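Session log. Operator J.P. requested a structure for one protein chain; no other inputs attached. Running the standard single-chain path with token output.
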Amino acid sequence: MRAINYRPDKTWRLALAFLPFALLLLTYVIASDIRLTENPNDKLLPSFAKMGEAIDAYALKPDPRTGGYLLWDDTSASLSRLIIGLTISTAFALVLGIVIGLLPVMGATLGPVVSVLSMVPPLALLPILFIVMGLGEASKITLIVVGTSLKLIRDIALRVGDIPREQLIKAQTLGASTPQIALRVVLPQILPRLIDSVRLEIGPAWLFLIAAEAIAADSGLGYRIFLVRRYLSMDVILPYVVWITLLAFVMDFALKLLQGKAFPWFAEARTA
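Structure written below.
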């Protein structure tokens, strides 16, 4: 049997999925043990026990200064910014992407400017946003919107263009107007693909959020990481990084689940 035709069963897929994680953990444990044996005060690769103490202090005990639980307060602040930013970005992308992809005049008018602006590095705009909008929440949320919406708009416009022309012609012969074609032919086919696009933008959205919080914030996961880095507190930084990764994974999984439940025909067509 050729390798391209071999498909592992469910048990094998599960084992193969866990294998890289197990190797990473094993590598970390060995490297940490070697460094701590040479220098018990080493901070670069702390032991799991040390990280457990940090998690206990940040997640399970109230902070003596603020009275809050730092990990949960930081998570709440970051998730609020991220979800608001991604929601605004998705709404913009859905409307403008369909308009640009469906209407040739709007595609000729807005397509080039969206393509050019999407090439601007969003992080280069961060100082401008802070100067114009101040150091509050608006500048951080705007950075997420700017950083993700333009790519989403281009992606949605391209996917609208991929819809078979025959479907649009058939709808017109049945008397459908342009808004009716947009709502009843294009939108149902674009929504599951929009979820795919948003899933791909979760990682960049976290990147923009962490960058903004690192520069100007008094709460948030990015703020905490860059605050404790002054003390080389890897026992705090590493759990925070793992926690951010877990949150991103859960968001991605939730969107995948939503796509499967809301658009089962799309999942079936993909696996066919």
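Operator note: The radius of gyration is 23 Å.
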